[in-house]
Amino acid sequence: MDAPVAEKQASAEDHMTKVDEIDINGGDITEEEFVEKVVAAIGEIKKNENKTLHKDTFIKIFKYTGDFAKLRSKDLKQKA
Known about the structure:
The protein is an all-alpha fold. It contains two helices and no strands.
């Protein structure tokens, strides 16, 4: 009845959402190119049964929204 259980070291990375980095600092990436890459990286928008965003989808959208804001502010600073 008491079978041995294999122990496994738990880590936070096992449950983390994988978010691909899109380089906004290296070259001249336009807003349109950035949006195209983000759409491809996010993939299908997944929602829960109560019509809220699935955790992984929310994290990706939140991350790329912040990156887009950084990209726009960088462009504005260069033009100023």
